[in-house]
Amino acid sequence: MNSMNTKALLLIVPITLGIAATVTFGLLAHTGANVSDPVPKPAAVPAAADTSARVNVTSLLGKLEFIGDKRMLAGRPLLFEFWATWCPPCRASIAHLNELEQKYHDRGLQIVGITGEDKAVVEAFRARVPMHYAVALDADQTIAREFQVEAIPQAWLLDKDGRVVWSGHPMELNEETIARVLPTHPAT
């Protein structure tokens, strides 16, 4: 039996969204080694070094309906995640996001979980599963469409100026990346 001689190469393709944010997507290309060779898992790649890759945070937040208190989010590092109550990987990432909230909130990091679900469903879920970070509704999926969200959970980390620093699965966000966006002094 002949062994297949095909290799998958991960190509990182930046795509600029209409909201001036750049997101990277991985595509597979044919190169010629063994199919059984492991495909390298992409690290979350910074969107772009270019300062034009920014998100208008004020506009983004203005399109959301917050459950509970709306925190001071503009002008601070922001981690936002698209999630849903019915999504097992999303539910698994809640504890991680709670830990990040506890560890970095006093240093300025703000976290928002964004869902397109009904408010009553989300409130009932939060009554059973504590979420110590802000939760907001994107009822008409406007923000999800702008960010071309096709799978959840999906998160973006922005610096205080709205520049996209990282995007990917929230469980893959490392502390070195978070530290890059934090101010050197505690938040006031």
Descriptive report:
The chain has five helices and eight strands, in the order ββαββαβαβαββα. A six-stranded mixed beta sheet has the order 3-6-5-4-7-8, with helices on one face. It has 188 residues and is of the alpha/beta class. The chain has helices at residues 57-62, 88-104, 119-128, 142-146, 175-181, and strands at 8-16, 22-30, 65-67, 78-82, 110-115, 134-137, 154-158, 164-168.
Uncertain runs are 1-52
Number of strands: 8
CATH class: Alpha Beta
- SS-based class: alpha/beta
Number of helices: 5
Amino- and carboxy-terminal Cα gap: 67 Å
Kindly report the CATH topology. Glutaredoxin
Task: Note the overall shape.
Answer: globular
Q: Name the average pLDDT.
A: 74
Helix content: 10-25%
Name of the CATH architecture: 3-Layer(aba) Sandwich
Gyration radius, in Å: 18 Å
Major pleated sheet? 6 strands, mixed
Order of H and E elements: EEHEEHEHEHEEH
Strand content: 15-25%
Strand order of the largest sheet: 3-6-5-4-7-8
Number of domains: 1
What key phrases describe this protein's structure?
single chain; 188 residues; alpha/beta; Glutaredoxin; 6-stranded mixed β-sheet; two-stranded antiparallel sheet; globular; disordered N terminus
Could you give the topology of this structure?
Blueprint: E1 8-16, E2 22-30, H1 57-62, E3 65-67, E4 78-82, H2 88-104, E5 110-115, H3 119-128, E6 134-137, H4 142-146, E7 154-158, E8 164-168, H5 175-181
Parallel strand pairs: 4-5, 5-6
Antiparallel strand pairs: 1-2, 3-6, 4-7, 7-8
